Amino acid sequence: KKYLVGLTGGIGSGKTTVANGFLTHGITLVDADIVAREVVEPGSPGLEQIRTHFGNSVINGDGTLNRGLLREIVFANPQHREWLNNLLHPMIRTRMLELVEKANSPYVILIAPLLFENGLDRLVNRTLVVDISPEKQIARTMARDKVSETQVNNIIASQMSREDRLAKADDIIDNNGDVAGIEDKVAELHSLYMTLSQSQ
Ligand code: ATP
Question: What is the CA(82)–ligand 1 centre distance, in A?
Answer without folding.
Answer: 31
